[in-house]
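Record 1 of the preview.
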Amino acid sequence: MKALILAAGYGTRLASVIKDTPKPLIPVGERPLIDYVVDKLQDIKPLSEIVVVSNNKFTPQFQQWAASRHGLPVRVVNDGTNTPEERLGSVGDIRFVWKKEASAQDWLVIGGDNLFDQNMSVYMDFAISKTPAVTIGVFDIKDISAATKFGVLGLDNAQKVTSFEEKPKNPVSSIIAMCVYYFPKQTIGFLEEYLSQSKAVDAAGSYIQWLSNKKTVYGFQFSGKWYDIGSIESLEEARAHFNK
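->
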């Protein structure tokens, strides 16, 4: 199994704060944001390697960061884009890496701007037990009005996803999808089927919405703290409260 960290964005919404630093490398506490994500992966026993997908502009910074890491091997892949207008989007980057790797693997995909304190081994134990179904990470933000910014879902008693709507105007719950996905190797081919039917490559949630309508998808609810670093406000909140 390999892990893929999505880190090919250009951080346009945080440009006034981070300037020429990619969002996953901005400091939270005394460490870059992505360090917290990678640290969470160290104890996943089936995991052999971490792949970080970046863009042409920021690949050198990620390579410098990766060289400083210890533990699981970290490899940086350049998606070849140079500007926000060229970006592949999260679905496009997943496809890019999977086609480049061209091997039958289970993949754990995580957004490089996720910050959470849930133990990942617990999530993986659940996800592997549900193979060959896909399992996503979900979180109850406990604010239904704020859920309009995310993919909102319903779960049954077995934690199977029963509904999913990306950025709904009228959310049915405050349970939202995180950018944490486990794709068993049996499910990798579904992505090409989705792309043959949809042009939505920017948000991975659009793919999960499509997938949940056609296949079995489970949701594992994360506990503790979670921050989606998408704005200056969320960055400052994470810096003030995470790991305290």
